[in-house]
Design goal:
Strand order of the largest sheet: 3-2-1-7-21-20
Number of helices: 9
Helix content: 10-25%
Largest sheet: 6 strands, mixed
Number of domains: 3
Structural class: alpha/beta
CATH architecture of the largest domain: 3-Layer(bba) Sandwich
Radius of gyration: 22 Å
CATH superfamily of the largest domain: FAD/NAD(P)-binding domain
Shape: globular
Distance between the termini: 56 Å
CATH topology of the largest domain: FAD/NAD(P)-binding domain
Number of strands: 28
């Protein structure tokens, strides 16, 4: 059996490695559109931007390891179409690559704003080349504007502020990340900006970028203007599914729809994992696309298990972390699926925790800051079906 993996970020690369670790000896082809050997992405918005840091990132796969694992790695290859009936993908050169099993792991690309751009100094942050360009730009000590107060935007703002630069974060919502965390916790977590000297402008819609050749600022719909020599747009990501148009696969604006076992309905030889996979999550009880580094690795191991005839590991709650201004924010579960039941501490104090419960008052999600033990405690209580009292004791609830 031959296996073709399209996309060599965390999900795709770890699938290839896990297949070999699980004893698969057949041909494995790993196709990637970037020219770089697969690399780890979390440092792109963190360590790589830090002043004095070596401009490199950890590699997920090297030529030496690829040779050792007998992987056919093809870099700089853009896949443009899938012919599922013939079991081939087509590349930008017209080459056809056949498969017996296909793993779709093409991830997502940075979303852009629906306003004209084309100015020097306006960036997105998704790839190693993006991060390298921003690192070079930061060395010129520009005035920085960040559009979007999600994790990518906040992490870049943090990196720029730690260099001593003037930073303004522009956010469309009244409370950053409120659809995920709720107003109360979203307000608390986003207070980290003001605590570190970053200006946060909320309920602000970008009208246009100012400047003729190079960006000079951001014009807002309410008439305000934010001066800037460097703008980073961090407004989410769009699944890379354009090459699947016309394939017959269940694809929409949210990604590729698959089963709980990552199989594509009606296409038993095709699997989807990572940032573009929309699946019924066995623990959350909803269909979800999980764009987290840890989930990508877990999904890779699960698909490698399925492809080798083994039982996949037990599912885990989604987990994501973000490093901002020297603090680590960690989220376990999906807070938006529960109700805030407990909170303690504050960003100003340097430690914070919020716990969310389901309709039966059982803990289902947690946000914590600078408290790794709280993450371990939550996972332990969740696994054994413990109560909110088991987790936080007899403390006054948030509601």
């Amino acid at each position: 059996m031959s296996i073709l993996i399209v996309g060599a970020s965390v999900a795709g690369t770890r699938t290839a490695i896990a297949l070999r670790q699980r004893g698969f000896t057949g041909p494995i082809t790993l196709v990637e559109s970037e020219e770089h050997w697969p690399y780890d992405k979390p440092p792109l918005s963190k360590d790589l931007l830090a002043e004095g840091h070596t401009p490199d990132v950890p590699r997920l796969l090297t030529p030496e390891l690829a040779a050792e694992l007998d992987l056919d790695v093809r870099l700089g290859v853009h896949v443009t179409a899938l012919d599922a009936a013939r079991q081939v993908v087509v590349t930008h050169t017209g080459e056809e690559i056949s498969y017996e099993r296909l793993v779709i792991a093409t991830g997502a690309r940075a979303r852009t704003l629906p306003v004209p751009s084309g100015l020097t100094g306006v960036h997105t942050l998704r790839t190693l080349d993006d991060s390298t360009a921003l690192r070079d730009a930061l060395a010129g000590k520009p005035r920085v504007a960040v559009v979007g107060a999600g994790f990518i935007g906040a992490e870049f703002a943090s990196a720029a502020r730690l260099r001593g630069l003037d930073v303004t974060v522009i956010e469309a919502l009244a409370v950053p990340m409120s659809p995920i965390l709720g107003d109360d916790v979203g307000r608390e977590v986003s207070s980290v900006h003001a605590l570190n000297g970053t200006e946060l402008v909320t309920e602000a819609r970008v009208e246009r970028f100012l400047g003729s050749a190079r960006v000079e600022g951001v014009a807002l719909a309410d008439g305000r203007a934010v001066p800037a020599d460097l703008v980073v747009v961090g407004v989410g990501a769009t699944p890379n599914t354009h090459w699947l148009e016309g394939s017959g696969l269940p694809v929409d604006h949210d990604g590729v729809h698959c089963t709980e076992r990552y199989e594509i309905p009606g296409f038993p030889s095709i699997f989807a994992i990572g940032d573009l996979a929309v699946r019924p999550h066995p623990l959350l009880g909803v269909r979800a696309r999980i764009e987290h580094w840890t989930s990508a690795g877990e999904q890779a191991d699960a698909v490698a298990s399925i492809l080798t005839g083994a039982e996949p590991p037990a599912p885990q709650l989604p987990y994501v972390w973000s490093d901002q201004y020297g603090s680590r924010i960690q989220i376990v579960g999906r807070p938006s699926l529960g109700e805030l039941a407990h909170r303690e501490g504050s960003m100003a104090e340097g430690h914070f925790r919020a716990v969310y419960v389901d309709t039966d008052d059982n803990p289902i999600a947690q946000v914590s800051v600078n408290n790794a033990k709280a993450v371990a405690a939550f996972r332990k209580i969740y696994r054994r079906g413990g109560s909110l009292t088991d987790l936080v004791g007899e403390q006054t609830p948030a509601r």
